[in-house]
Each structure stands twice: as C-alpha cells, then as structure tokens.
Amino acid sequence: MTSVFRLPSRPVATTVLGLGLVGLGLGLAGSGSRLGTLIATHAPALVVFVGVIAVGDLFRLRMPSGRETAPLASASALAVAFVGTINGEAVFDIDPGLVALVVTVALALAAAVHRAQHRSPGVPQLAARLLGVGLAAVLAREVGPEGATLWDDQALEGYARGLVAVGLVGVALVAIVVELVLVSAIRAERQRSPWTAAVRDELTEAAPLTLAVVVTGPMVALMAPVLGLVALPAALVPLVMAYAAVGQFARNRATNRQLIATLSVLTEEGGYTRRLHAERVSGLAVRVGRVLGLGDRELRDIEYAALLHDLGQISLRDPIPDGATVLAAPADQRDIAAEGARIIRRAETLDVVAAYVEAQTTPYRLVRELGEPVPIGSRIIKCANAFDDLTQGSSDPARVTAALERIHLGLGYEYDPDVVDALSRVVEHSSVGRLAEEPLLAR
After folding, report:
1. Given 3-state DSSP classes, what are the helix, strand and coil percentages for the chain, each rounded to the nearest 5?
2. What does the alpha-carbon distance between residue 186 and residue 371 come to, in Å, rounded to a whole number?
3. Which residues contact 421 (CB under 8 A, 6 or more apart)?
4. Which of 147, 213, 229, 244 is most buried, judging by how many CB atoms fall within 10 Å of its CB?
C-alpha cells in the first residue's frame, strides 16, 4: 500500500518536510504531556478547528498559472495559533507545539482523503504550511516585550484592540510569507526554474488571497470572545467570497486557453502540421521560459503564441512538408508569421501574442548587430519550433542530439545563445515525448 507520507526525491522538498517533522517533534517533546488535558478541555473547539482546516485543504484553488493554494485551510490554521478566549468555552491556552499538532492532524486527514481520491496531497507543501503556522504560534504566544505577548494582550480589559489586531495581522503576514517562500523553493526545484522568479510569481499571483488570509486569523481571535466557535465560519465569509471570485477568474483563463488550443488544431486538421506539434512547442517554450526566469504573465503569452505560431500556414496553397517551417525559405517563414499575426490581432486582447508570433522568424543576429527589439517570447518560440520540427516530435536520443546540433550551428546567428542554453537544459532533464501530455503552466 502506498504511504500518504511518501518522501519526495528532491532535496529542497525533503528538507522542508524534514523541518516540519523536526518542528513538530520538538513541540511535542515540550508540551506533549498536556495533550490529554487539551482533548478533555477543548474537545468541541478541536473538532471545529480540525474539521474546518481539513475541509479547507480539500477545497484547494487552482490559480491561473496552474499552482494550487488552500486559503481556507491556511486562514483556519492561523486562527488556531491566535485564538484565546472563546465565549462558552475554556480559554484556548495551548503551547505552540500543540498548535502544530492540531494543524498536523487536520492536514493529515486532508492528505488521506486526497490520496484516497488519487490526488497528490503535496506533503512538502503541507509541511511548509505547518512551519508557517508554527512560527505564527511562537510569535503570538511566546514572544513579546517583558513577557507580554499578543496572545496575552488580547485578553486584557481596556487594552487597545486595534494595536493587538495590527500585531496579529503582522504575525500572520510573516507566517504566510514564510509558507509561500518555502512553497516557491519546492516549485522552483521541481520546475528547474530560478528560485527568485518562483517567489515573485507566488507572492504576486496569490496577493489578493494572501491579504484575505492574513486578516482572517486575527478576526477569529478578536470575534471569538463574543461569538464563540461561530467566529471561525463567520470570519471565513469574506475569504470565501474572495475564493469564489479568484476561482471564477481562473476558470475564465482556463476557458480562454481551451479556445486558443482549439484554434491551434486548425493547422493539424487541415494537414498543414503534424499532430500535437503546437502543443509540444507550447510545452517546450513554457519550460524554457521558466528556466530563463520569466514571470507567469509572460509565460502565458508565450504559451498562447506558441499554440498559434503556425496559424498563418492555413493561407498556403501548397502545405510545407510535415509543416516544418524551419526548413522553409526565410521569406516564406516571414509571410506565414505575418499572416498568423494578422489573424490573431482580430482579437483585441491578444496584441502581445500577435507580436510574439510575428517576430518569431527574426534571426538573432539582427538583435545582436542592429539592436532590433525582438521579444524574448519570439526567440523562445523560434528555438522550440525548430527543435520540434527537427525531431518531428520524437524522443529518440539520436534525433534529439541531431536537432540540438543543428540548432547549435545557428547559435548567435539564428538563435539566441541564452535560449539555446535553456533549451538544452530542459531537453536534458525532461522526457521530451511527454511534453504535450503535461499541464503547461503547471502546479
């Protein structure tokens, strides 16, 4: 039977998971003796917190880039770290180690359900969330001037609630940033992209949800003395609304991608290009862009442009053999690219995509010698298309080697050396035959 907590094979993911386990172990070593008292005293609260965190992780949100996030689970876990007085319940006075244990139980339940549904639970990412929440619990419950912590201050009569709220929001922000940075490191390692680019994308794309998450935990802590356990679902309402709005935005983006992918099939159905050529070029181009550290917005435009890069071939009376434009005359390549760009510009929102398609045939020497402003997206598509044309979609090592050698012959003249270097790294570490099967802006 496959274990839910199967260790990842990548060093960064393994390190994050190890840190999570070490932190949990240290916490339990210091406060595990109070576990029985915790269960006996706070059973209703524990059931609510564990249930909401687990359910929140089951309702993960897939962002437009393909990465998954669980804002409901993160916000609920931070509430466990911050909550103190609960109307109708005993004061939730537990150590950070027990906070980590409560969150771990909830995440383990969610991971088991994910595994039962044949979905990856993302155990290293769960460990990153645990580390962030554990840090928040330490900062809120253990750290403060002269021993006066934020957790203590929120229970004092007449204390400035606004200052406590600001302090808790600051702690929540630190915890979420730590979680996102660790998740970015895991993602960068898996995708072989620069860590700084992964951090930038994680922080910018998740910004709207991050702001909602960081205020939810403090809201629960400040509402619980009046509303009791109802404070948790009540405080989650604004976050659920943000979750729904971002989810709709992500679904709209997915629909746009499907429409563009459908349009790209025209050249295949018309016999102009090989089957899945556009998908393979798109997948390869996105991976090359990641290695070069491009942002998600640029990668999305590159993906769309790569899907549509051969659209201009539908104007040809006599198809190019196998649709391999890399073997066509330069003038014919330019005409095909210009026609494709003209068609794409009919959609007003795809001007950048059209520019990438139009400039895809420009030799790199014009950039180097004349300073012609050829977008990096166009240079990437040029290399990716040439590679797939030369291999004809085959992952045979001999064909792959021959294609790379052919591309290297045009290094600095036809092709951007940095792009070729990134292409070589992607091909070296990827299963080329699977490029069209994997999600493009993926997880």
Report:
1. 75, 0, 25
2. 37
3. none
4. 213
From residue 310, give the alpha-carbon distance in Å to each of 153, 320, 382, 403, 439.
64, 11, 11, 20, 21
pLDDT tens readout for residues 281-330: 999 999 999 889 888 889 999 999 999 998 888 888 777 877 778 878 88
CA distances from 95 to 89, 98, 123, 365 (A): 17, 5, 24, 64
Q: If pLDDT is split at 50, 70 and 90, which confidence band does 442 have?
A: very low
Residues facing 411 on adjacent strands: 415
Token duo for residue 214: 């960081």
Domains of the chain: 11-250 (1.10.1760.20), 265-434 (1.10.3210.10)
pLDDT in tens, 158-192: 566 778 888 889 999 999 988 888 888 888 888 77
Alpha-carbon Rg for the chain in angstroms:
26
Q: How far apart are CA 235 and CA 75, in angstroms?
A: 9
| Encoded tokens for 347 | 């959609």
Angle at 141 between CA 14 and CA 74, to 5 degrees: 50
